[in-house]
Automatic annotation (TrEMBL):
This is Cytochrome c biogenesis protein ResB. InterPro entries: Cyt_c_bgen_Ccs1/CcsB/ResB, ResB-like_domain. The keyword Oxidoreductase does not apply. It is a multi-pass membrane protein. Keywords: Cytochrome c-type biogenesis, Membrane, Transmembrane, Transmembrane helix. It is found in: Membrane. Its main location: membrane.
Length: 423
């Protein structure tokens, strides 16, 4: 048990724990917000891992702080810098020298039975503070997201109108531990969707939205960045497809309509596929849509049409090609391909803590620059086995200590020793 506790309190283990925490934070930040279901499941798993790492690091830090509190004496660091003999035979106390250095602005950082370590570099000390503050803000941003954040993915077709986005509208959602339902205080309507291709590949999707909140306005989405509205962010997902609307006319002349959301093909030329049951009837439909039936590689809906298979109770009623606005007979009923529209995916996020994250990241980088490029000056007071008192002066600057400061410190040390010895 003792060996296990020592392992968890080792600097290497703590360093790996901090690195894992930062990597988990970075991975969460790099996951595209506009992605749909796969990204949401990944974020949910990373949230659990992140909170576990935070709890582990907190426990280890608490144990390490208690250990240092109970054990004041530490192993001396290896002395560096210019070595100066202060007293060949020293029998006094190091306390007056410590008081003198502290009065000159040096900070006492560590001690042993026969050594003292002091540091001074106000910029470096502030750098340490800024660095740790930045890390704290980064961690805090993801704790905030894990507790109160929400993110949902929905599909909407051209002409569809949602007066208020309800929890049931999300195909996939991810919420924080303290959030059970995600219902933004606004609705939306998709006025139009423009899909643009370049060199045969998807280039951009522009959705013209009417946002139905306290401030009603029309905005256009893009894959290049989100929309901001009433504290929420709306991302254009790189998901789109076609919606085929079929109208069924029964014997009484009444029409029943059904919308079929068709998924895009995995490869060009394979068609948009979908289907399902027809509401209120026992028909089962399999649909494959092509924007151009005469050129199945084409992406623009110039000659739209579908290959459709209609079954009822396992009996095949129709199988063949159906152009836009064309009608087929299903016994006493008529089925018409009457409308074509785009559908697209939208991601809505709330309380993601992006501002706190980027502020923390900036502070951590700035603090790291100050710490690692401007390390503090160090003074070691060491009493060797022969009772000789030495001082080591180390500075990161090329000239080490400035000569005037170096001479001043040595003279001040010797004055203190002279007063202590009564000379």
């Amino acid at each position: 048990m003792l060996r296990l506790s020592k392992f968890f309190l080792k600097r290497g283990f703590i360093s790996w724990l901090i690195l894992a925490l930062l990597l988990a934070s970075l991975f969460q930040a790099l996951i595209p917000q506009e992605r749909s279901d796969d990204s949401l499941h990944l974020i949910r798993r990373l949230n659990g891992l992140f909170l576990l790492l935070v709890a582990s690091l907190s426990l280890v830090s608490l144990a390490l702080a208690l250990k240092r509190l109970w054990s004041r004496e530490r192993r001396p660091p290896h002395p560096l810098g210019k070595k100066v003999l202060l007293e060949p035979s020293f029998n006094g106390s190091l306390v007056p020298l410590r008081n003198k250095l502290e009065s000159l602005g040096y900070v006492f950082t560590a001690e042993g039975q026969e050594w003292l370590l002091f540091e001074r570099h106000r910029i470096g000390r502030w750098g340490t503070f800024v660095f740790h503050l930045g890390l704290f803000l980064v961690v805090l941003s993801f704790i905030y997201r894990g507790m109160w954040g929400a993110r949902g993915y929905l599909q909407i077709m051209e002409g569809e109108r949602l007066e208020r986005i309800k929890d049931r509208h999300w195909l996939v959602k991810e919420t924080g531990l303290l959030i059970s339902r995600f219902e933004p205080n606004f609705g939306l309507a998709l006025l139009s969707c423009n899909v643009r291709y370049q060199d045969g590949e998807l280039f951009d999707i522009n959705s013209r939205l009417r946002l139905l909140g306290k401030l009603r306005k029309e905005m256009e989405t893009s894959l290049r960045g989100p929309l901001r509205y009433q504290g929420f962010r709306l991302y254009q997902a790189p998901d789109f497809g076609f919606v085929t609307t079929l109208y069924l006319r029964d014997q009484k002349g009444e029409f029943i309509s059904a919308h079929y959301f068709l998924d895009p093909p995995s490869r060009p030329g394979e068609g948009f596929v979908g289907g399902g049951d027809f509401p209120g009837r026992d028909y089962s439909l399999n649909i494959k849509f092509y924007p151009n039936l005469f050129d199945q590689q084409a992406l623009d809906p110039a000659w739209p049409g579908i290959y459709i298979q209609v079954q009822r109770a396992g009996e095949l009623l129709f199988e063949g090609r159906l152009f836009f606005s064309q009608t087929i007979s299903l016994g006493d009923e008529r089925l018409t391909f009457g409308r074509l529209a785009y559908w697209t995916g939208l991601v809505v996020t709330s309380h993601q803590g992006e501002g706190v994250f980027f502020a923390g990241l900036l502070a951590a980088v700035l603090g790291a620059i100050l710490v690692y490029f401007l390390p503090p000056r160090r003074i070691f007071l060491v009493l060797d086995a022969n009772q000789a008192l030495w001082v080591f002066l180390w500075s990161p600057y090329p000239g080490r200590f400035f000569p005037q400061e170096e001479d001043f410190l040595i003279s001040e040390f010797r004055k203190v020793l002279a007063n202590q010895n009564g000379r």
